[in-house]
Amino acid sequence: MIITIFTKHNCMQCDATKNMMDKQGLRYRLVNLDETQEAAEKLMALGYRQAPVVMADNEHWSGFRPDKIMRLAQPTLAQE
Fold first, then answer.
1. What was the pLDDT predicted at 79?
2. How far is residue 8's CA from residue 11's CA, in Å, rounded to a whole number?
3. Contact 26, 3 (CB under 8 A)
4. The whole model's pTM is what?
5. Residues 23, 72: contact at Cβ < 8 Å?
6. How many H helices and E strands in the chain?
7. 10-residue mean pLDDT series, the chain (80 residues)
């Protein structure tokens, strides 16, 4: 599974998302929206207006979502 976190500078929810994913042992790549205008425009076109935006396979969401992160950490539940 490939997880991408779209973050911004000085974003508490972004930091909380990264910290929880680290604690769950999830690997991810970061894309900073403050430095990548093209990514920011793509997410806005999808309707996102809040960071972080997490994309993992066919699932994506915005904001700090511990429930979704825990679901990613349990692959058998993510496939249900």
1. 46
2. 6
3. yes
4. 0.88
5. no
6. 4, 4
7. 95 98 96 94 94 94 96 66
